[in-house]
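Try this one yourself first.
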């Protein structure tokens, strides 16, 4: 379900830049910001009106359960408390890993277009590469999202790590359009897959009861890296005249980030027991 929901982000990466370019060409960037901001605000407010916290608020029960089997109003929302989570190493490990990984991902998203044009390719080709990353990321979100159910988050973390390292090595060698397309495919799939992993990873480690606030904190940590990474990469380019050193540093930093995630021991919250996707996740 997370993979399906996250497909919307990939769709936005493809459609919104195109819409923004049309608006900027006709009305300028200031008016375009106002139009896009107003559209997003109205869309979010409208969508929020149809959201429910969980099926129990609609008088529904998990498939197959009768009301006599329900011992409380939120039996599926189990897990450790927020205070317990933030006092433990695993939670902060995930936060710091997200900072490291997102810093590298934003380097690509902000610098892939100038890097492509520096190679002598047209701005249209550079924009197509960026759009392709967004499109392929949609497949990554669905693919990794469905794979998590079968093999678990740890195996999917390893898959995304391999994809990212391969992509950063690929972009070092990419000189022709077909090589950049190959990079976009490999990187885009890993990009979408990683952002699908975060919510299930937090839920698996800490349970559903504190999931909302813990997930928000982990996501909040990401922009710290996302803000620093592109600035540092841009400075490296200004000094060296090339993105090569920045991409090598990203390879090392993203390896550190995934190393932190893989260092987490496989265990379930103490008050919850193993998460049974057959009895909770698939029936919710």
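Now uncover the answer:
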């Amino acid at each position: 379900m997370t993979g399906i929901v996250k497909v919307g982000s990939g769709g936005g990466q493809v459609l919104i830049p195109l819409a923004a370019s049309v608006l900027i060409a006709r009305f300028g960037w200031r008016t375009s910001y106002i139009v896009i901001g107003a559209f997003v605000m109205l869309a979010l407010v409208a969508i929020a009106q149809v959201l429910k916290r969980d099926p129990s608020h609609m008088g529904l029960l998990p498939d197959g359960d009768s009301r006599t089997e329900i011992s409380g109003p939120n039996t599926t929302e189990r897990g450790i408390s927020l205070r317990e989570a933030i006092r433990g190493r695993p939670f902060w490990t995930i936060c710091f890993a997200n900072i490291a990984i997102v810093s590298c991902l934003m380097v690509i998203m902000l610098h892939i277009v100038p890097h492509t044009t520096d190679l002598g390719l047209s701005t249209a080709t550079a924009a197509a590469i960026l759009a392709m990353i967004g499109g392929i990321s949609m497949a990554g979100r669905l693919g990794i999202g469905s794979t998590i159910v079968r093999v678990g988050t740890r195996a999917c973390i390893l898959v995304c790590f391999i994809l990212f390292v391969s992509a950063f090595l690929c972009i070092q060698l990419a000189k022709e359009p077909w090589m950049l397309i190959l990079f976009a495919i490999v990187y885009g799939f890993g990009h979408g897959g990683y952002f699908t992993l975060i919510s299930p990873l937090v839920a698996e480690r800490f349970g559903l009861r504190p999931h909302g606030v813990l997930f928000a904190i982990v996501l909040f940590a990401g922009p710290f890296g996302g803000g620093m990474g592109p600035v540092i990469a841009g400075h490296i380019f200004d000094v060296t005249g090339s993105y090569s050193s920045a991409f090598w540093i990203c390879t090392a930093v993203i390896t550190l980030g995934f190393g932190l995630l893989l260092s987490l021991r496989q265990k379930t919250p103490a008050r919850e027991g193993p998460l049974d996707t057959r009895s909770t996740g698939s029936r919710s």
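Discussion: Residues 268-284 have pLDDT under 50 and may be disordered. DSSP finds nine helices and no strands in the chain.
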